[in-house]
Write a structure and sequence with these properties.
This protein is mostly helical. The chain is built from four helices and no strands. The chain has helices at residues 4-23, 27-52, 58-88, 119-126. Helix 1 runs antiparallel to helix 2 (27-52) and helix 2 runs antiparallel to helix 3 (58-88). It starts with a helix and ends with a helix.
């Protein structure tokens, strides 16, 4: 088997995943794109393991570790996305900046800004 075929397929998968990460706004589609990128890496690991005829099968062992890490990543990532969707009503990645906690300004009084709501108002809006 030639090494070119799986390498080209892995490059196409990785580029598709990279495009999905950079162009998509939905968090679930971004997670799926990250999974595509990890699968491209797995394909390269196994292809090079077969091509090099490694007796220890290090590429396949690393692939198993990558699959385990990807499963943990998708589990935690999906839980975070579902919680954000439940609280905010959207899974839009651009709106996730609204989740950050604004630190009070050290030089001025943070409560004097009429555009910034107090923490109590934020808590009431979230409930």
């Amino acid at each position: 088997m030639h090494l070119v075929y799986p390498a080209v397929l892995a490059a196409l998968l990785f580029c598709t995943g990279l495009y999905g990460v950079l162009a998509r706004r939905n968090a679930i589609l971004v997670l799926m794109s990250v999974e595509l990128m990890l699968n491209a890496v797995n394909l390269n690991l196994v292809a090079f393991d077969v091509w090099l005829r490694d007796e220890l099968h290090a590429g396949q062992a690393l692939t198993l570790f990558t699959i385990a890490i990807a499963a943990a990543e998708i589990g935690i990532g999906l839980a975070i996305v579902l919680q954000v969707h439940r609280n905010r009503g959207t899974a839009d990645v651009d709106r996730l900046r609204d989740l950050r906690d604004d630190a009070p300004d050290t030089g001025s009084d943070a409560g004097s800004d009429p555009d910034r709501p107090d923490r109590e108002e934020k808590a009431e809006a979230a409930a």
